[in-house]
Amino acid sequence: MSGGGEGSGEGKGVTMRVEVDVPKCVASGQCVMIAPDVFDQREEDGIVVLLDEQPASELHADVRESAVVCPAAAIRVVEK
Amino acid sequence: MKHVVVVGGSAAGLAAAETLRREGYEGTLTLIGDEPYHPYDRPPLSKQILGGQWEPDRVPLRAPADLDALGLELRLGVAATGLDLAGRTVALADGARVPYDGLVIATGVRPRRLPGDGGERAHVLRTLDDALALRDRLGPGRRLAVVGAGFLGAEAAAVARGLGAEVTLLEPAPVPLAPAVGERVGRMLSQAHHDHGVDLRTGVAVAEVTDGGVRLTDGTLVEADEVLVAIGSVPNTGWLEGSGLTLGDGLECDEYSAAAPDVYGAGDVARWHNPLFGTAMRIEHRTNATEQGMAVARNLLRPDERRPFAPVPYFWSDQYDFRIQAHGYLRGHEEVAVVEGELAERKFLAVYRSGDRVAGVLAVGMPPKAVRTWRQAVATRAAWRDAVGELLPEGA
């Protein structure tokens, strides 16, 4: 998860991998509203669709926010 | 700021603590929770946990390593008992006094109870322990009486029915959840209970829990092996009595969600002024806990840059084979329009008017983009006449 005490962690060379725990998703769509280039929702039930497993660095802040806001804690962000 | 104390170890408290660290706060950060568990998610308690699809290992909100990384001083299994506002200390049940420069109050709510003594067969459903205790007593042929057909009672009734229990659902109002979702959607929910074999009795008030079931105000005994009391929640503000903070329906906070200088409220316990809707509200939704916890952390850390907390509230409810999703503030609405689909099909989108604006949207089985579009209408304070007027036939 993205929760870490390391400040913003932005900058060149930081890669981010995003994982979604689909069974946990409750289809609130918050992630799509925050980071529409990275997340979408399935038409039939609104469950999350991960569009980009390794988003570019300019999207990182929004993806971290999505992970934190997700009401199901279904988004995991791994940064190196 | 060197010492921040977060009182409340669930979703809002966790969000506040995490956000403080993410925003660069490096001082001491104490998280106090009255339950002996690391922060965990409550919505699954009335769904997958009660139904047995998940074991308790799936409800913690963060993996232990991620929680450790926050560098928290965790005090779990101990309740806060008092607040010295002038002296800036929180008193705990174990006798400790915890000093703070900044304080987040996120102590949530507890279930309202009924009089009477049903012993072990009388349940509430707020904590993981509650859910596991009830789960263990449900199964084919067991008779469950659920008092209160709000979201919690409705979900538990649906799950219990799925486990093969005989379920009686007792509700004082003529239509369940009418204040929350309106009468038309409330009637749809009633029909769903009937369709799944739940004995929903409306206009029925329960006087007490007994060891045979529940006794109604007219003296009738509704027999049950187990009883779930789901009649609403009471904010946990007792520990703040006499502190000087304003308490009413929860901890009263301003539009920044501040209760006093350097003291903020977040989550189920907080009643704050939401400028997006121009009214005070206390929201017991899961998403609000996180959003408000995040917002108060930022306001606490940077008071010069603090921003009003003006969210579009969101809630969802899983009942039987459908999911309700709603964005906005539907309470006190004056009009509902079903703009897509059919209630009877359980595929529809309804919008709600308060004053001259679109105040909320509620959907079941609708494409997410349609729902998000209406959420945007709420967020931008769209006028009802503009957003909805053209969609309805003349005279509707």
TrEMBL record, chain B:
Pfam families in UniProt: Pyr_redox_2, Reductase_C
Keyword NADP assigned: no
Required co-factors: FAD
Keyword Nucleotidyltransferase among UniProt keywords: no
Domain FAD/NAD(P)-binding, chain residue ranges per copy: 3-293
InterPro entries: FAD-oxidoreductase/Apoptosis, FAD/NAD-bd_sf, FAD/NAD-binding_dom, FAD/NAD-linked_Rdtase_dimer_sf, Reductase_C
Coiled coil: none
Entry keywords, A to Z: FAD, Flavoprotein, Oxidoreductase
The Reductase C-terminal domain, residue ranges: 314-384
Record protein name field: FAD-dependent oxidoreductase
